[in-house]
Amino acid sequence: MRPLLLVAALAGLLPGTAPAAVDVPDSPELPARLDLETALRLLRERGLDLLTAEAAVASAAGDARAAGELANPTLSAGYGRSFPRGACVDGAGASIPCAPLADPALSASISDNAAIWSMVTGKRGLRVDVARRALEAARLSRDDALRSLEGQLEQQFVALVLARDTLAFAREVAEAQARTQALSEARLEAGAISEADLARIETSRLEADQQVDAAAAGLRGAQVALAYLLGVRGPVPDFDVDPGPLERSTPPPGLAAQTRATLVRAALDRRPDVAAARRQEEGARASLDLARRERIPDVSLSVGYAQQGTTNQALLPPTWTVGISLPLPVLSWQQGEVARAEATLAGQSLARAKAESTAVSDVESAWAALEASRSMLARMEGRLLDRSRRAFDLVTVQYDKGAASLLDLLDARRTWIGVRLEYLGDLAAYWQAIFRLEQAAGVTLR
Is the pLDDT of residue 281 over 50? Predict the structure, then answer.
């Protein structure tokens, strides 16, 4: 009994044996000034969603290893004694009770449990092929999870840069409005403006303060969202970001050599989700082949030995036997299993086609967004941004000299603020479109 308990304990079947604990990484410490490359590195090292995908790969690797293992042989052994029934006679011919036979009955046999037959018929090879395709698909799904997570991180990093620049501009506007109000109060005392004009200026200044608070809240929300993607599991520090090239509209070096057609081809060739769908389709086809092969009955070979006595007059002299056993396929021919495998293959073929269609759609949408953002940025940087600022400066000079009304000043300032905020949004949309295009095509353009 003790050897059986030991085997069960080693196999992890007893309550006292706990599975290995999962190695969960510590919460990352964010630097005071975070750049995009550092954020991507932290994501690859500490991202919890990515580690979950790694666990799925490890599980698939275990399945692949199990599929290649052969069934353990079965060893049987027996011991017994024979007790004759009825009357026995002694040497004188008198009836006496029958005594047990002196020689015990011994038997032993070993069976391969169809292990050899599974290799002969190719069933083992098909099982290994199915598991190998599943492992490849799991690895590609892990790569696709990384692709999606990096895309989310890049989008959120751009959003954080936009929130930071929006707050900086809101504070700049608020400071300018405060100076205008102080100047207007002095002009009111001198009788140069009316109290109604001062009320309008003060209202404009209060609105600017409102925008500062809203921008600060937006910045904090963007910081928290980015920290969540990086796996921070504690209080989120107040950190800054280094925008790098995201402050400019200079196109990345890899973008010039790409066209919409080349990016579509790259998506179909390189995207891990498309490749994973293809591996899953191949695995479903191998599963169908395996289901059809399972119609061949499993043949088990066995060798046995038995004896009850060792002489020629023994009840059972030493005897060797060779046996073969197989189930008779008279009630089931695996019709249900084959039909299910055929349906799975059809579903995986449709999933592969959908993945390819999704990849093309993602590239087309990202390319259209990039074209629109490039056009709007060119218009902004060409004339719109400069002319709106120039108009505001001129109206400000005219207002100071009494040649423009307060309403003209407020309107010019409102237009300039709107255009500036629109420019920041267009610049963020431009880089988000580039990152979306990278994610859609599965390539790096920077």
Answer: yes
Single-letter residue type at 128: V
Q: What is the pTM of this model?
A: 0.79
Is 11's pLDDT higher than 50? no
Domains of the chain as residue ranges with CATH: 25-77+103-328+335-441 (1.20.1600.10)
**What are 401-419's pLDDT values in tens digits?**
878 888 888 899 999 999 9
Contacts of 109 (CB under 8 A, 6+ apart): 75, 76, 302, 303, 304, 305, 321, 323
Exposed/middle/buried for residue 29 (C-beta within 10 Å: 0-12, 13-18, 19+): exposed
pLDDT tens, residue by residue, 322-372: 999 988 888 888 889 999 999 999 999 999 999 999 999 999 999 999 999
Start-to-end Cα distance in the chain: 66
